[in-house]
Design a protein that fits this description.
mainly alpha; five-stranded mixed sheet; 43 helices; GlnE; EC 2.7.7.89; nucleotidyltransferase; ATP-binding; ligase
């Protein structure tokens, strides 16, 4: 055992850790009793990404062809080039080990002679015996697939040897990413040509049709991976039935032998004809193609089949590609493509996805392609398929900085190299960087990429650091690539590196979603003018903010709002610093400004809320009682009545903005929003009432009466929206020794002063106190005593007034008086025995009148959130009718909350669960939509927009992704309220 341990320890100095290593070495004649033999081979093994894997590969080759093993071992000993290439391949790919074990003599093709790229096609033609001018294969069927697979895999192994040889032998030629990608693409071209030759042989009709194969995607751009679908489009001429059979056969042969062939980029995708004529393609792209299809055509390249037909395809589609940026739907389709990149990546993988994650390959490719579409219309030098070639052309043409172009290309090559190495392991498609805990995988990938330890860090740690650095650089430059030149376009200082003309800057802004590029440029200029520190910070912020605003429903309005907020807060020292240093704040502010007209004015007047945007908990965790206490304490500090009410307004403004931000950002639910808004209203009324009462008492020589404020309607139900008035009633109780007349005069002055002070014009959203639900309405006194209310309801009260009292709740003033008022009205709103038939008919009559008379002229009943079919009024009246008829016998129905009333009705078997759910869903949706529409428009809005940016903004405020069709959101609203209306018809109208 000790000898065995020493042997393994000796083998370990060559990186071999497998317990079977010594046994394999001895069997291969690489280890003797005295220790290692052929040490040069063992040293080469130690340099591979996985020495154990490389040794197992050599052993499998030896076992598969023992007679030729001595020849191979001697060749490895003497031929440095073969040694580096073969052992690098074996230590990097188990798939190539399988290939060499199945085809033992194939190791000879790695001795350095190799197959030149220009001979790839001929080599694969020979494999299927395709001869003559038309290249029809003599071999077909399973035999053709077998031969083509072996020949293709052998050539692919040669490419891998070129790619990896320097990892083992430092003196070996180093092939760049660009060269390897081009070799892989040329090999794919050759495979398509050979597969086409087999397809023609199987069709037996080579003279009746012509077919051209157009490579798309990475193959078209000559930047293919080791393992990737090859995207193609087929063009045919002559007998299209024959051409289609040939195309289908090509896809099958290539798929079984080499790689999957994907033709879904063809017109109409998988539902479209597999082969079309030139005219068919031209007609489709002229009439039906979407912007993403023209983006895909950037990389189109004829690779197989009829050369004249292939060139004709390019001549047909290329002019349309370079006019795509002029299309009306260019902006929304480009935006949808940009967002789609990350949407398909699970959140737990987004930081590891080389291809689709933030700072991944798609960021580079999309940025480059969009710039090509925008600027390639006038600059033919940008019309290139390769991403790195196009980047170089963009840098040389001044569309991006030369340094930025070089750095982005460097990072792109780095990530593509990692992608290649990961795919080589098992020749499987993957784009996932190893997780932090996958130390063996990280170590292997670092060695395969030629990354070693440095400065006390392991190779795996260096790799992780490099990966994050390149991903962050890509994300930063992705943003800068679009927006930094826009700053230069409005700068007074010319620059060689960035020289966008005004027209080009307009085009770039339009491509990013701005409907008024000229206005956007003016805002940029105003924000970045001068040499102040503020202008410098804005210049650093704007690239990111322009990108963020471009992802909102209204980029133009958002940029204008940002300018107004920035100018208003120019004297606030921390404002720009918070945006610069806290990325989440800038991102969330952009979302708010590009979605809502309600928020910007409040931000200017309550900027301290901006600090909360960095922490969702701060936006959502304030206790209503704490808010009320803070507001009352602030008001008490002011002796002058005007200042006291101004303090109440200020805190209300702060809370309104806090709640709106949490709502728009999706950090809270609709019931919490309504309760928060109602609580704020109650606190404002309480604080204002106290301040006015103090002032009146000082003038009158004492408090002549106590006053209570009874919330009605949505305030009473804690269901207020952003633009809701506060429906209230005032009740008073004379102080000891004070007559009712004097007490009422005193309380009347208090009530009128509260209404006047809160309702006075201001820049804040209105604070209207509505007392029209009081007895006798507008003709009645604004304040009554408790006994006066009792007498009125006993003698004159009508059924609709009992219905209005269902939501009555003390919200401010004297708590004991408020409780007595509630005790007094309970028998009225919960009448013993319920309602008689005449009273039920009266409620239905009033509801029908409301439906016909109060709906605004021109309003759409299907989308009016308050009075429309299945809207708030429908549901609330239904619940209230159930309460009036049954609350005397069902105590749980005695609630001011619509949602609690629905739940109690289900529990008492007064509503079926399905009916209650239909009403509940519609009420919550209508309330959310009403709030969202108010936030979007900046004023009370009961009508859901039915088209345009306002509809998109309301949908976005409701959490619908901008990539989704807002029309679907509109259909969902109509369907939900239609179901609710059906329930109202049979429950309310019986």
């Amino acid at each position: 055992m000790a000898d065995r341990a020493r042997s393994i320890s000796s083998a370990a100095r060559f990186g071999l850790t497998d317990p079977r290593a010594e046994q394999d070495l001895r069997a291969a004649g690489l280890w003797g009793d005295s220790g290692p033999q052929h040490e040069v081979i063992l040293t080469a093994l130690s340099r591979t990404p996985d020495p154990d894997l490389a040794l197992r590969g050599l052993d499998r080759i030896r076992e598969s062809a023992p007679d030729s093993w001595p020849e191979l071992r001697d060749a490895l000993e003497t031929d440095r080039r073969l040694r580096g290439r073969l052992i690098a391949v074996l230590g990097s790919s188990s798939a190539f080990t399988d290939f060499l074990a199945a085809h033992p003599g194939q190791w000879r093709r790695l001795d350095g002679g190799g197959t030149p790229v220009e001979h790839y096609t001929q080599a694969l033609y020979e494999a299927v015996e395709a001869e003559g001018d038309h290249r029809v294969a003599k071999v077909r069927g399973a035999d053709a697939v077998r031969r083509l697979k072996a020949a293709y895999r052998g050539l692919l192994m040669e490419v891998a040897a070129d790619d990896l040889g320097h990892v083992v032998e430092s003196t070996a030629a180093r092939f760049t990413y660009d060269e390897i990608a081009r070799q892989l693409s040329e090999l794919a071209d050759a495979a398509l040509r050979a597969a086409l030759a087999v397809a023609w042989a199987e069709s037996g009709s080579s003279g009746s049709a012509r077919v051209a194969v157009i490579a798309m995607g990475k193959c078209g751009g000559q930047e293919l991976n080791y393992v990737s679908d090859v995207d193609v489009v087929f063009v045919g001429d002559g007998d299209l039935a024959v051409a289609t059979r040939v195309a289908s056969a090509l896809m099958r042969v290539a798929g079984e032998a080499c790689f999957e062939v994907d033709a879904n980029l063809r017109p109409e995708g998988r539902n479209g004809a597999l082969v079309r004529t030139l005219d068919g393609h031209g007609t489709y792209y002229k009439r039906w193609a979407k912007t993403w299809e023209f983006q895909a055509l950037l990389k189109a390249r004829p690779v197989a089949g009829d050369a004249e037909l292939g060139q004709g395809y390019l001549d047909t589609v290329s002019p349309m590609v370079w006019h795509a940026a002029n299309r009306d739907n260019f902006v929304p389709e480009v935006q949808a493509m940009r967002r789609r990149v990350e949407d398909h990546v699970p959140s737990e993988l987004v930081d590891r996805e080389l291809k689709l994650g933030r700072g991944g390959l798609r960021d580079v490719e999309f940025a480059v392609q969009l710039l090509q579409l925008v600027h390639g219309r006038t600059d033919e030098l940008l019309r290139l398929g390769s991403t790195v070639d196009a980047l170089a052309a963009l840098g040389a043409g001044g569309y991006v900085g030369r340094t930025d172009s070089a750095e982005l290309a460097d990072s792109y090559r780095f990530l593509r190299t990692l992608e290649h190495r990961l795919q080589l392991q098992r020749l499987r498609r993957t784009h996932l960087f190893p997780a932090d805990q996958e130390t063996d995988e990280l170590r292997w990938l670092a060695r395969a990429s030629g990354i070693g330890p440095e400065r006390g860090r392991t190779a795996a740690q260096v790799l992780q650091s490099d990966f994050r650095r390149h991903a962050n650089r890509i994300r930063r430059l992705h943003e800068k690539l679009f927006y930094r030149p826009l700053l230069e376009a409005v700068s007074r200082v010319p620059t060689e590196a960035l020289r966008l003309t005004t027209e080009e800057a307009h085009a770039r802004l339009a491509a990013l979603g701005y409907l008024s590029p000229q206005g956007a440029l003016q805002h940029i200029k105003a924000l970045t003018e001068g040499v102040s520190r503020r202008a410098a910070i804005q210049s650093a912020l704007l690239p990111v903010l322009l990108d963020l605003l471009g992802n909102t429903p209204d980029p133009d309005g958002g940029l204008l709002a940002y300018r107004k907020v920035s100018e208003a807060l120019s004297g606030t020292p921390w404002y720009l610093r918070v945006l610069r240093d806290e990325g989440a704040v800038a991102e969330r502010l952009a979302t708010l400004l590009g979605t809502s007209r309600f928020v910007p004015d409040l931000v200017v007047r309550a900027p301290e809320v901006l600090r909360m945007l960095g922490d969702p908990k701060e936006l959502t965790s304030r206790d209503p009682a704490e808010v009320a206490g803070s507001l009352r304490a602030a008001v008490r500090r002011h002796g002058y009545l005007g200042n006291a009410v101004a303090a109440a307004r200020s805190l209300r403004r702060h809370e309104l903005l806090r709640i709106a931000c949490a709502d728009l950002l999706g950090f809270t639910d609709v019931l919490t929003v309504c309760a928060g808004l109602s609580s704020v209203w109650g606190a404002v009324l309480q604080a204002s009432l106290e301040a006015v009462d103090r002032a009146e008492a000082a003038a009158a020589g004492g408090h002549l009466a106590t006053v209570a404020v009874i919330g009605m309607g949505r305030l009473g139900g804690s269901e207020l929206g952003y633009g809701s008035d506060a429906d209230v009633m005032f009740v008073c109780q004379p102080a000891p020794g004070v007559s009712d007349e004097d007490a009422l005069k005193y309380a009347g002055r208090v009530a009128q002063a509260v209404r006047k002070l809160l309702g006075s014009p201001s820049q804040d959203p209105p604070l209207q106190v509505d007392v029209d639900l009081r007895p006798e309405g507008r003709q009645g006194p604004i304040v009554r005593t408790l006994e006066s209310y009792r007498a009125y309801y006993a003698q004159w009260g009508e059924v609709w007034e009992a219905q209005a009292l269902l939501r009555a709740r003390p919200v401010a003033g004297d708590a004991e008086l408020g409780a007595r008022f509630i005790a007094m009205i309970d028998p009225i709103r919960y009448p013993g025995g319920g309602l008689d038939a005449a009273q039920v008919r009266e409620i239905r009559r009033i509801k029908a009148r409301v439906d016909t008379e109060r709906l605004p002229r021109g309003a759409d009943p299907a989308t009016h959130t308050k009075l429309g079919r299945g809207g708030l009024a429908d549901i609330e009246w239904t619940v209230q009718l159930i309460q009036l008829r049954n609350a005397h016998a069902v105590p749980d129905l005695r609630t001011t909350s619509t949602m609690d009333g629905l739940a109690a009705a289900v529990a008492a078997d007064l509503l079926t669960p399905d009916d209650a759910e239909a009403l509940r869903s519609a009420w919550l949706l209508a309330t959310r939509v009403r709030n969202a529409a108010t936030l979007v428009r900046g004023k009370q809005a009961d009508q859901l927009p039915t088209h345009g940016r306002e509809l998109a903004a309301v949908a976005a405020a409701m959490g619908t992704e901008l990539t989704k069709d807002p029309g679907q959101f509109l259909d969902d609203y109509r369907r939900t309220t239609r179901h609710a209306r059906a329930v109202v018809e049979h429950v309310f109208y019986d």
